[in-house]
Structure formats: C-alpha cells, structure tokens
Amino acid sequence: MVKLRSAVNFQLKAGWFGSEQKAPPIILKEIPLVSFTQISGWPDNFEKKIQKLLSVLGFSELGTFSKAQIAKEKTVFRVGPERILVWSSGAFEWNTIKSLADTNSLSFLDLSHARTIIQLEGVKVPDLLARLISVDLNNESFPGQCFVLTAIHSVPVMLYRRLDGLKGPSFNLFIPYTWSASLVELICQTALPFGYVVKGPLPQD
Amino acid sequence: MKKQPNRLPKGGRIDRGKAFSIKFDGSNIEAYPGDTLASAFLANGKKIVGRSFKYHRPRGIMSAGVEEPNALVNLRKKGRAEPNTRATVIEVYEGLEAESQNCWPTLALDFGVLNNFFSRFLPAGFYYKTFMGSGPGTSGWMFWEKYIRRAAGMGRPVSELDPDSYEKINSYADVLVIGSGPAGLCAALAAGRSGARVILAEQDFLNGGTILNEPCNGEHAEWLTLILKELTSLKNVLLLTRSTVFSAYQKGVYGILERVWDHVAEPPPYQPRQRFHLLRAKTTILASGAIEQPLVFENNDLPGVMLANSTRVYLHRYGILTGKKVVVATNNWSAFVTAHDLALVGARVSLVYSGSKINSDVKKLLDASGVETFIGYSVIRARGLRSLKEVDIALTQDKPHSSFPKMITIQVDLLAISGGWAPNLNLWSQLGYKPIFNQSRGAFFPDVDNLENFSCVGLVSPTFRNKNPSEAWFSAGVKAANFCGHKNNPGTVFPIPASPFSTTLGAGLIRGLGIGIHSNKEGKAFVDFQHDTTIGDIDLADLEGMRSVEHTKRYTTSGMATDQGKTSNINTLARMAELQGGKISDIGITTFRPPYTPISFGAMAAERRGKKFAPTRVSPIHDWHVKIGAKFIAVGPWQRPWFYPAKDEGLKEAYIREAEHIRKHVGLVDVSTLGKISVQGPDASEFLNRVYANNFKRLKVGRIRYGVMLREDGLVLDDGTTARLGEFDYFMSTTTANAGSVLSHLEFLLQTSWPNLKVHLTSVTDQWAAIAVAGPKSRQLLQEVTIGCDLRSEALPNMALTETKIGEIPIRLHRMSFSGELAYEIYVGSGWGQIIWDKLIQKGKSFKLIPYGTEAMGTLRIEKGHVSAPELDGRNTLCNLGLERLANKNKQYVGSVLRQRPLLNDQSQQILVGLEVIQKNQQLKPGMLLFSENTPTAGHGEGFVSSVTWSPALNKFIGLGFLIRGNDRLGEKIQSVDFLENKNFSLRVVSPHFFDPQGERQNG
Fold first, then answer.
1. ipTM, 2 decimals?
2. B830 CA to chain A: closest CA distance, Å?
3. How far is Cα B394 from Cα B399, in angstroms, rounded to an integer?
4. Does residue B173 come out as left (phi exceeding 0), alpha (psi in the -120 to 50 range) or beta?
5. Residue A168 has what DSSP assignment?
6. B894: buried, middle or exposed (CB in 10 Å: 19+, 13-18, 0-12)?
7. Is the pLDDT of residue B995 over 80?
8. Of B262, B361, B738, B751, which residue is 20 to 30 A from B663 by alpha carbon distance?
C-alpha cells in the first residue's frame, strides 16, 4: 500500500528548537495513523453488538467515555454513547471484521486519513499542553490511558495519554488532517520557551 | 547631589552591593536590586513624580503598593512602552527607562497647571453640562470630543509592534490562596500539608505581605524564612510571585496575571514577558489584606503626604527614611507603630491622633522613642507650594467642625496619614456578592458564612481580631483541603510572633474613617486623587440630586480611574452618608469588576495575534499549490488556491486564461474544502428525505442527486449533492462556507426533532481530498489514469459514481459538474490526495491539463448559472433562486410548511437573473444596485448584482443578480449603479444559464 503523505511535512523538521536544555524537555514526532475506524450503532442494541465485535478483536470491555481500552496493537476510544473509534497502529483488515458484524445494527466508517497524530513526550509536555487546552492533566485526574475530546484554538482534537514513556509523560494528539499544519505550527511556537526536539518527519513515498 | 540621600546606612530587603542606574525623564537615578521605582525615587529625594489628571497639580508618591493613585509613569520605550504603570509596583532593573506622563513641556514645569487656577469653572459634571447639547443634535459634542480626548490625562499608547511574546495557560488547583501575607502563608501551609494541590498567588515579587513591613532581621523575618522553606519543599504547593489575581468568576474560575519577565529590560530568548493563567480552583482562601485609606483635608495631595503604613514599608523593606520632620496623623491605632519606628531611626515625629485615648503600654513605647503626641487633634490643612512644608492641626475631639479658632502649625517634610483600612474584597465582590458594612469597624467585609468553597483569612476577614490568628488561618487551610477530599495530618500550627503594637499582624487595624475632618471650601481636599475628585465635587453631586452611589460615582468619576477607587471609595461613601444624614450601609457600595489591577492587552491576546490570530485550514494538496506559486484566498478558515499566475499575470489575466482553457481542454481544481458529511444508518434515506426539499427516497445506490435544504422558516440554507454509497450509507457534500452550519443543523434535527431515527452523522471533510477534473478532455484523461474503469456515458452517466483505482490508490469517482463541462470529482483519502494530483498533472500533460483556481471556477459556474455562496446568503427562497421546481409537493420536509407563505412564492419579488453588460468592457461589480432604464437612480433600487465575471465564452462581463419580477424581464435593458464609485452601466437582463443551457456538454 502507498504510504500516506504527512500533512505536517513543513512544520515538523527534525532538529532541536527553542530554549536549549541539558535534555530535551519535549519530544515531538508524527506517528502514522494506519487504521482509524468509527463504529456506531443505536441505543436498542449497541452495547450488546459492540461487545461481541470487540471480543473478537481481543478486548475484554468497551471502556468508558474517558478511558481507552487497549488490546494488542489496537486502542478503542468510546467517544459517544453509541460511537467508538478503533485505532490500530498496525495494518488491519477491516473487511474481515465487517463481515463478522451485523451491518444493520452497526455502521463502519473509515477515518484512516482524517487525523494527524502528534506524539508529545517529555517532562514538560503537561506544561506545554496546559497552554493549549483547558484540561487538567494532573496525574491523578488524567492518568495513563485517559483520553478527552477537547479543542486547541477552537479546533476539535482528541488527546490520549499513553502510559508514561522513558522520557516522561507521553501523549498522542489526534488532530483533524486539514487543521494539522496550522495547529502543529502553534504547538511548536508554544513549545519554544521549553525547547523541543522533533523526531521525524514521517518517511514519504 | 549625594546619591540616595534618604537611604539609611543599613536595613531593607535590597542588595546594596549591586547599585545600578535607571533613567527617569532622561536623568540617571541610582537604585538597588529589590527596589521599586517608587523606592528609588524616594531614596533619591525625588518628590514630584507625576501630575494630576485634571488640575495638573504636582503629585508625589502616596503609597507602596497597587493602590498608588499618583505615581503613574510611562515605562519602557517603543514597542515595549506601557503607559499608566504604578511606580510603586515596578521592580527596578538595570537599564530601566521611564518617563513622566500627563505633563508638558516637563514634569517640573507643566503648563497644564493653569487648569488648577481655573478649577472653579471645572467642577464635577463640567463636560456634561458644557459640551453635551451644545449644538444641534450631537454635533456640539462631536466637535469638542476630539479636543477633550486630547486634553485628557493619563498616558498614551504606542503604535509600534510589541516585540515580546505573551502566553496563556490553563491552571488547576484544589485550593487557591490569594495573598502571601502571614494569613495566606499559614492557610497555604495547612492545605499543602493536608495533601491538597495548592496555588499561592502573590502580586508582589516577594512573598510575605505585611511581614515584609517588619524589620528584616527580626523574629518576623525568621518566621517568614521558615514557613517559606517548608512551603517550597511541598511538591503539591506552587508559589506564584509577581502574580496578581485580577479577576474572579463563578465556579472557582480566576484570571491571574503572572509578570514572568517584567523585571528585566528584555525577556530571555523565547520566554514570555507575561503569562495569563486561567485558573480553576475547587476552593478559595482570600488573604488579600486591607488597604490603608487617606484622610481628607485641605491640600492632602501635596508631595510629601503619604499613607502612614507606606512610610513604614519604605523604612523596613527598602531602608529609606522618607522624612526627617514627620507628622503622623491618624484616626486609628495602626499608625502608632509607624510613628514609633520612624522616631527610632532619628526622625522628629509628632503623632496627631483624633481619638480620645491611647493604650497606656503603647503610650509608654511612643514616649520612650521620643514621639510627641497630640491626642484629640486632627490635621486641618497642609501647606506648601510644590511640596509639603507645614501642617495645621487643631483640637477636634474626633468630631467634624467647620472652623477651628486655635490651630498649631508644625514644620514638616513628611505627613504620614491613616484614615483607617479597607479590606481588600474586590475579588469576592467580583463574584457578584454584596459586602456587609461593619459600623463599629467602619469597613465593608465579605459575607462568606454561606459559602462552602470560599473563605477569608487575615485582614479581609471580619474575624481578624481573633486572639490566636495563626490558628484561625491554619484551620481555614485545613478546612479547604478537607473540602477537596485531602485529609492528611496537617501537623501543628506555625504561630506568628506577637508584636508589641498588635497592629500590623492583627488587631486594631480597622477603625474609624478618614472623612468628617476636613477643611472649609477654601482649598482642595481630595477624595479621589487619581481623578482629581474633591470633597467639593461630592458635595456638588449631592446638591444636584445624585443620591445613589452609582450616580455619584459616574457624575464625579470618583473611583473610576485605573486604581478603581482603592483609596477613594470609602471616603466617598462616608461623605455621601454624612450629606444624606444616614449610614454608609444605607448608601451601599458600587460593584467591583475585573480587572483588580490593570493588565496588558498583550496578556489577554497571548498567542492570538498575527498569523496565530486564528488557525487556518489547508487542503491536503496545499503544499503543491504553494510550490507552484498559486495565489491564495481565504474562504472562512480555509486557504484556497485563487489562481495560478503564469509569468507576470495578475488575477484577471490568470482567471480568464484558466477558464478559457477549461472550456477547450481540461483542468484540475482542488475542491477538498467542500463540506463532506457521512450519513449512515437504516433511516438515512428517510432522514435525507426530511431535510432536503427534493425527493431522496428513490435515490439508487451508485447515484448522486443535487439537493436544496431549507431552514424551518422556508428560506434556503444550502445546496449540494448527496451520493448513495450503500444501502445505509450516504455521502453529502455542502458548500465550503456552510459546511459547519449544515452539520450543526442536521445534528440538531437528529437530536431534538427525530431522536428515534437511526442515523449517525460524521464530518468526513478531513478524510477525503477532492479533485474536480473538468473540460472536454476530462474523460480521456481519466480513462488513461484509472484502472479498468468504463467511463462511457452509458456506464457512468452524469450524477453517477464508481469506485476505481489510480495506480495502487483506491479512489471514488463522481461524475458531476459545477463548471457546465464534462466533469468528474475524484475522492481520495487525504493522505493520498497530493499523490493523485501529481499523477494527474503528470499524465495530463498530453491533454494540455492545467490547474485552475477558485476565481476561474467561479467564472465557469456563473456562465453556467449555478448558485453559490453569494446567492445562498440566507435571505433567499427557492422562488428567488428559480429553484421552486425542485421542491417536492408530496412530502413534508424542513421548511415545507413555511415556504408556502404567499410572499415567499410571489413572482413579483427579486428573482435570480443573468445580467450582460451592453458595452462589453464595462466591469460589473457585485453589490451594484439595479434600476429600470429610465427611472431615477435613488434608494435601494429594484435589485442587486450578486456575482460577476468576465466571460471568456461570451467575451464580455456577465453577472448573476436578483431583480424584481426577474422572470418577466428577460431581454429588458436596465441600469446598474455603483454609488460609491459613481458608475452607471446599461445591462441586458437574460437567463442565468449563459452557457450550454441544455447541458449537452456536461451530459455528453
């Protein structure tokens, strides 16, 4: 399959930017979306149908509206009462899964091009994000596996806190593809006082 | 002149080893790190530092804090200049430059002082009475306003760009403690020890509050060091200095301005000058202290008259003796310690106390220090031309008098006054609460009894006289932490050392009022120093019927300046009560509003300026457009390629070339910006049938239909196409401009009107790049690049779709036309959009393919008579747009009832028509008004031009417009008028379908 073209090629050039510290307090990199699918249903039988489908995918439960579920290379975000997003960081054959599902009760929508994922890692990342979004990212109120639908500069984004990485707190920011160039510029500008390192960009065909 | 003549040889929290120069009005002044600009002025004996607002009277430093009404200066130069900054809170730094303001030509010699001599003619209400209604209508005011504004006081902003950055941050806390005086520190420590997340915000650059007014080497200083050490060690406590909580809102939301790098000439690289915290706290402890109030007497604004406690601040914190011959005049006990301390360092001090007795222990201390006491006396007037020389005192026995036959005159260079203290309750008041006036203490206090997440400690609390204040402060912190669920053992209280005067740290502070003892009407006795409001102005307002405090405030402007009445409100209220024969509690108090102290526009805007004012949205193919040199146009947040200039082409040459080329060959236009909505679910067709005016139930899988949506009122909301991708799966496209509003409209209907419909709506605008391929050679091109796809009309007719591939990349091909040409739209995943575009450009060379922009696209659609955003402006009906035939009469849909209103279907209203210029080079403009041929061109006309273009196909300017009875006027000659540019063209009314009206090209 042809690799996807990054929307932030010009914004994320590898290097160290802004204040220089002994160790980079913030590391930014784009990670490939690969597979991102919305599955939705309706109140009468959504829970039942989706649980069945998710068990096939290896998930033991559906999760809450703020805590993602992880199984193998896949992560499920429950973003609405009858709506989930399934993100797979590895190649994924949805047609197989669809064939298992009751398409009268569940709708599948491929969104694998619709987001840019920026991974932010480092001790100062919560401080950086505090300048961009109005969510309390304190360890107690927003621990690993938590996610939130919020906004940066009025643009809707989804923030997902991964289990902390070696370099400190680690987050994935899902940004709508067509907004991502502008928002990544803003993120980089906001990160200048801390100093940040860009790992990347994504390899292109 | 000796440097720093008023600086004592030792003492103060300053670094005497690092003296440097700062500049004021071009002159060098020596200062130490730890000084404020005001303390540097005082250390160097500078008495006049500003001119008053209205009368341009010389003014000196009055206070040592944020309440300063007089010492306003213009700080820094060029883009960094900031007017109206208070010298008392400006932390000095090497290279600091400040200038006086509101004076001309110099601070020492200000011609504006002439106002002082004509002050009899400039009383409160002068501008209202003199200039409003001085001419017909508002003309008089409009004439005078510019002169009045020019003459108005205060500083002036600069127009240069501020080179510094500012930032905004979201902060969170369990407990917000406002103020780091002893009460705030104790409360923060208790809350922190209990495990709560605490933010302690202090507006000063040092923590300590009133502790900093004590000698810097005593037991209070030691207490401060210890408690700060522990607080700093707690990871859950954040100490924010240089941080003013300037606004308070419901639900624990606060605005805090942190002056991160205001104390240096230029912030370090990448660092913000200021930071705006939007703080959300679960509970709040207000420990904001109290502000000393002035006494009101004749010439109480002379340089050399200061608030009593401020002179003590300058003594102990900055090591400055602000006067050698001092009168301390007070109506309360708090100033006794000031008299005592000034006398101890060698000043000759007279204490003038209007009360009847002094505690015997305190009297002994005063006597021992050499303070001369006048009990039952008050200051009647101050004398001096440019600064204080003498004060007249008289035996008043704490009662107001109009004349005093026996007065004593004392030679002085400093008059330290205290008219009582006002608890600093502004933030609490900003929450919308009304404070309660405590008659015995002569002050307003917050009423926090019924608030579970807000408490007050220290001087702002009505219970501040508690015998063991530290315990009360500590328990407030514990209670706040417990409220948030943090119940760790808080340990024992940190007891504050007792003071022999029991004043600055607790008892006896708030007593009496500064009003009641004042002069007769001969001289000026100021109530509001910053706005030059005198006691006479308050009296005049009362005489003219201003009984409400809100009226008096606005009529006299007392309390309306940048200091927000911090030293004037109470005295104004007291005088009003006196005049009305009532109590202050009957008068009430005005509402405090944010900001508590002035904040910069830079901090409020933060990163939202310049390019970052609003985020932009770009197509997945944007980088290619940039690389090729396209010119862009903003369409809402989108940046769209407007035209692709060849060599030196301008817009007109480029779009005409592009449009002409498409009619002959083939072109690509990036239409990724169109709104795209996925409509999924078993009831999707029913849903679409209800939202579109035309029928959607019978749309087959693989087919596309043009549709028009109405609002509930029957007017057109938007148009677009919807493709049926599967049994329960539709793909709707909207105009770029209306994408957001259409999705909101549909979601609203789904959630409120038809919650039982099994439909999900999802924006897929970001998922899909869209490329329109238009022109007679488009089919040939696509046939060559796609794999195994039959594009013949029989296989893929107009308004049908198919799925295919270009190379390895899957695409969806919609056959549809906006240009009127044979055309297709390619939908491909955004991440592949540019790859497909590149392939088309490459393969298209042999077909003479070019990219074209939105301007040429507009040309093609106008030639075809397709409506777009200029026509779909929210004011038109189906009838206006000539689309009434689309409306299905056999079903109900949104707007179907109200669109039947007779007026909305009246053919005599404005109807969409085509417009051709008679003389082909006359350039039509959108917005031109339309008139019949031989009628006078006045008023709103009979219609207007909505869209225009040069038509390569017709070789003339054409346009779309709305004209009364348009359908009946085809062929008629009319006028179009541009009143702004004084142009009048002759037009012919024609069908809006200029080009290929039968659709042979697009259907071929």
1. 0.96
2. 5
3. 11
4. beta
5. B
6. buried
7. yes
8. B738
Query: Could you tell me the sign of the dihedral formed by the alpha carbons of B535, B541, B544, B548, in that order?
Result: negative
d(CA A92, CA B327): 86
B19, burial (CB in 10 Å: exposed 0-12, middle 13-18, buried 19+): middle
On whether any CB of chain B is under 8 Å from the CB of A131, the answer is yes
- Report the chain A residue with the minimal C-alpha distance to residue B760: A40
What is the C-alpha separation between B889 and A117, in angstroms, rounded?
Answer: 48
SS3 B24: strand
Does A124 contact B at CB distance below 8 Å? Answer: no
Partners of residue B456 on adjacent β-strands: B286
pLDDT tens digits for range B606-619: 988 887 899 999 99
pTM: 0.92
Cβ contacts (< 8 Å) between B767 and chain A: which residues? 110-114, 177
What span, in angstroms and rounded, lies between the C-alpha atoms of B487 and B194?
Answer: 5
**Residues in chain B within 8 Å Cβ distance of A42:** 681, 758
Residue of A nearest to B273 (CA): A193
Contact predicate B62/B68, CB 8 Å = yes
Is the Cβ pair A178, B832 closer than 8 Å?
Answer: no
Inter-residue contact B169 to A132 (CB < 8 Å): no
The string over B581-614, giving b where at least 16 C-beta atoms fall within 10 Å of a residue's C-beta and e elsewhere, is eeebeebbbbebebbbbbbbebbebbbeeeebee
What is the end-to-end Cα distance of chain A in Å, rounded? 10
Measured at the CA of B564, the angle between CA B560 and CA B565, to 5 degrees, comes to 85
| Bridge-based pairing state of the strands B823-829 and B768-774 | antiparallel
What's the CA gap between B860 and B855, in Å, rounded? 9
Interchain contact, B618 vs A181, CB within 8 Å: yes
Closest in A113, A130, A178 to B619, CB measured: A178
* Chain B residues touching A181 at Cβ < 8 A: 616, 618, 622
Q: First CA to last CA across chain B, in angstroms? A: 97
C-alpha to C-alpha distances, B152 to B101, B146, B305, B359, nearest whole angstrom: 11, 10, 25, 48
Asked if residue A144 has pLDDT above 50, the reply is: yes
CB contacts of A179 in chain B (<8 Å) are: 615, 617, 766
Contact B679, B730 (CB under 8 A): yes
Cβ of B758 within 8 Å of Cβ of A179? The answer is no
CA angle B38, B39, B43 (to 5 degrees): 120
- Give the count of Cβ contacts less than 8 A between chain A and B: 135
Residue contact A179–B197, C-beta within 8 A: no
CA B998 to chain centroid? 56
For B300, half-sphere exposure in the C-beta direction (CA atoms, 13 angstrom radius) is 34
Tell me whether residues B766 and A113 touch, CB distance under 8 A: yes
**Dihedral sign of CA atoms B839, B842, B845, B848 in order:** positive
Do the Cβ atoms of A161 and A170 come closer than 8 Å?
yes
CA-to-CA distance for B412 and B414, rounded, in angstroms? 6
Residue A204 contacts B, CB cutoff 8 Å: no
Instruction: Compute the distance between CA of residue B223 and CA of residue B296 in angstroms, rounded to an integer.
Output: 37
Q: Does residue B507 carry a pLDDT above 50? A: no
In this structure, is the dihedral angle defined by the CA atoms of residues B310, B314, B316 and B321, taken in order, positive or negative? Answer: negative
Asked if B551 and B404 count as a contact pair (C-beta separation under 8 A), the reply is no
User: Using CA atoms, how far apart are residues A39 and A50, in angstroms rounded to an integer?
Assistant: 8
Which distant-in-sequence residues (6+ apart) come within 8 Å of B9 by Cβ? Answer: none
- Nearest residue of chain A to residue B761 (CA atoms): A40
A66 touches chain B (CB under 8 A): no
Tell me the three-class secondary structure of B872-895, residue by residue: CCCCCCHHHHCCHHHCCCCCCCCC
Least confident of B271-280, B302-311, B443-452, B628-637: B443-452
